[in-house]
Amino acid sequence: MKIHQKYVSLIIKRILFGFGFFLIPGLSNGSETSLPAEPNTALKQAREAVRTQKETRAERFFKDGTKLMTSEEYSRAITKLKLSVRLWPDLAEAHSNLGYCYRKQKLYGKAISAYLEAIRLKPDLVEAREYLAEAYAELAALYREKAREELEVLKTLDQEEADAVEMLMRKLDL
C-alpha cells in the first residue's frame, strides 16, 4: 500500500511541477504557504490525471486479459482481469470476463459473484446475463448428477429413505 501511495504522490508532484507550483516560496521546503485560487483547479486536474492513468492501465489489463481469455488461457486471464477490476472497479465488462474465466475453471461461486457485480454495474450487459444463466445451468446439472450419486449410495443404506428422496427428485424434475 505504501508503494501505491508513493506512486500517487510522485504523480501529483510531477503534475504540480508542471503547473509551476515549485516556484511558490516555502512550498518546496515544507513550510506552510497559502496558495492562490488556482491550486483547487490544479488539484482537480491532478486527481483527474491520476484517475485517467489508472483507467488507462486498467484498460490495458482488460484488453490483455480478454485476449488471454479468447485463447483459453484462463489462469493468466484471471490475473490480468483481477488487476483491471482492482484499478477500475466500475468496468462491468472486466467483471463479466473475469466471471467467464472463473466459470471455465469450474469456480462457480467466484464466477457468479463476478457476473452479479457486472450486472449491478451495468444491468443491460447481455453477456453477463447470458453467462450467469449458463453458470446456473451448469451448476444445476452438476448438482443433479451429485444428487443421483447420493441417491444410489442411499439405496444401499436405507431403501425407505431412498424412496422418499427419489420421489422428491421426480417432483423437482431431477
TrEMBL record:
SUPFAM superfamilies: TPR-like (SSF48452). PROSITE patterns: TPR, TPR_REGION. Signal peptide: none annotated. Residues 125-152 form a coiled coil. This is Uncharacterized protein. Keywords: Coiled coil, TPR repeat. TPR repeats lie at residues 92-125.
